[in-house]
Design brief:
The protein has 342 residues and is of the alpha/beta class. The protein has a domain of 186 residues: Zn-dependent exopeptidases (Aminopeptidase). The chain is built from eleven helices and six strands. Strand 4, helix 4 and strand 5 form a beta-alpha-beta unit. Helix 1 crosses helix 10. The longest helix is centred in the last third of the chain and has 40 residues. The structure holds zinc ion.
């Protein structure tokens, strides 16, 4: 990490402190079907509705470790709400994830394997998250990823009822994950094992946390990510605020890079104006430029100046801590060197 990035971390973290909040993100987990939904007799005791409920419980636990607020559409294994009721829970949520395992037209066809993730036709930017989850699930289940897909109903809206309902309730980031085929021996052996489902849940939670920028290093600092179209998180919101303040962006401050081209175009115009490559990707060069402007930008508004000054004083406290840390480290190293010389 270079000095510029270190300073950026401080600004970024104090900015959040000023807001006195961390973005709260609610995730709805929807284990498909009911308790005895979709049995597969050749795999004794297998019910898609039960195994997905088990997976959802592990996933809830793993996601909560990252600080997500998680709600299940089936808190009790015997719950079986309608598809509409499941989707309706997604009101105000950042993500709805419906958990399933697949079966071919004929359950006797045991060959098909591989995972699929469906996303809403209302938001093409969600292919990014669908790809991330689908590839991760397929990697853990040791089969190939069949791909991220949109399924359209004859009426022209989303085919999957849960996705359709979530969208109707304002949550377009609604995905349905088919975790392999329970009609495939290898896949169903995986899906019936609790310890394997637990491992799968940890991997899925990890990739979701990565997508939302919720993964932190040991010191609790924000990790630096390259931000591109289709991503979401606190860091996206930070750049949205920055570009809005500087007149490049007029869209919603919703921490989502997409859907639509509004924020993407704002990033490109900013890059163009600053002599950077106008590719719409916020990499280290764009980040450094944002940092430079925050520190040196001319601010005429007194309220803004006051806000900036409060940030600067907080930054100074943080900087002192770092300076102290490096001083101690240097002393320690010199002490060791002196001992060696003696
Ligand atoms: Zn299903």
């Amino acid at each position: 990490m270079c000095l510029q990035e270190l300073l950026f971390v401080i600004i970024w973290n104090t900015d959040k402190e000023c807001n006195r909040r961390r973005i709260e993100m609610k995730i709805i987990l929807d284990p498909g079907h009911g308790r005895y939904g979709n049995p597969y007799p050749p795999q004794k005791g297998f019910y898609e509705g039960t195994q997905m409920w088990v997976l959802a419980n592990y996933l809830k636990e793993e996601l909560e470790k990252y600080g997500f607020d998680v709600v299940s559409t089936r808190p009790d294994i015997n719950d079986m709400p309608s598809l509409y009721a499941r989707g309706a829970l997604a009101k105000g949520a950042s993500l709805l994830l419906s958990l399933h395992s697949n079966a071919p037209q004929s359950a006797l066809d045991t060959k098909p394997t591989g995972s699929v993730v469906y996303y809403s036709l209302e938001d093409e930017s969600n292919k990014v998250l669908a790809d991330m989850i689908g590839n991760k699930v397929s990697e853990v289940m040791s089969h190939y990823y069949r791909g991220s897909m949109i399924k359209v109903s004859p009426k022209g809206d989303d085919y999957n009822g849960v996705i359709r309902s979530a969208v109707k309730n304002g949550c377009t980031r609604a995905l349905l994950v088919e975790h392999g085929f329970h009609t495939n021996l290898k896949d169903s052996e995986f899906l019936i094992s609790n310890s394997k489902l637990q491992k799968l849940a940890a991997a899925e939670a990890g990739i979701i946390a990565e997508y939302f920028g919720f993964n932190r290093n040991k010191e609790g600092e924000a990790m630096f990510r390259t931000l591109r179209y289709g991503m979401a998180g606190e860091d996206v919101e930070f750049v949205q605020k920055f570009l809005a303040l500087h007149g490049y962006y007029t869209g919603p401050i919703d921490s989502s890079f997409g859907p639509g081209q509004g924020f993407l175009n704002a990033v490109k115009s900013f890059q163009k104006a600053e002599g950077l490559t106008a590719d719409g990707v916020i990499d280290s060069a764009s980040r450094a430029k944002i940092f430079e402007i925050i520190l040196t930008g001319s601010i005429t508004d007194s309220a803004q100046m006051e806000e900036l000054m409060s940030k600067v004083s907080k930054m100074e406290i943080e900087l002192k801590k770092y300076v102290e840390y490096f001083r101690l480290q240097t002393e320690l190293r010199m002490g060791i060197e002196m001992q060696i010389q003696e």
